[in-house]
Specification:
single chain, alpha+beta, Translation Initiation Factor IF3, four-stranded mixed sheet, 4 helices, about 30% helix, Cell_div_SepF, Cell_div_SepF/SepF-rel, SepF-like_sf
Length: about 140
């Protein structure tokens, strides 16, 4: 045995008791690959039964954080701002607009000083016309 053979055997030792028959596996022992199961209902989106909507009537800007927490928990929020001063109502709308944007949700005015904030998981269809002149 030469020096190269000794180094080769040291780096990657070869087992002399190696039996090729141990590696042979019968085809019956190999498991068939699992086929992907198609969903039973195609095109139907399952809606969680625990979807909730919360109503808020904040009396200070600090309560906007509570609305944001509910939005992060995938709950829709209706916020009535009529008890806030105009300046604080605008700050609340600005804050909630940022929260909704970050969550890929939507924000809509649904009445005088009333907004609807929804996370991405809740869809809103239709619009409410706020103009009293149209009939």
């Amino acid at each position: 045995m030469g020096v190269l053979d000794k180094m080769k055997n040291f780096i990657a030792p070869v087992d002399d008791d190696y039996d090729e028959e141990e590696l042979e596996v019968e085809e019956d022992e190999i498991a068939a690959p699992v086929k992907y199961e198609q969903p039973q209902t195609k095109g139907v989106t399952k809606i969680a039964s625990d979807t909730k909507m919360v109503l808020f009537e904040p009396r200070s800007f600090d309560e906007a954080e509570e609305v944001a927490k509910h939005l992060k928990e995938r709950r829709a929020a209706v916020v009535n701002l009529h008890r806030l001063q105009r300046e604080y109502a605008q700050r609340t709308i600005d804050f909630l607009t940022g929260v909704v944007f970050a969550l890929d949700g939507t924000i809509q005015k649904i009445g005088h000083n009333v907004i609807l904030c929804t996370p991405k998981s809740i869809a809103v269809h239709g619009e409410i016309s706020l103009d009293s002149d149209e009939e």
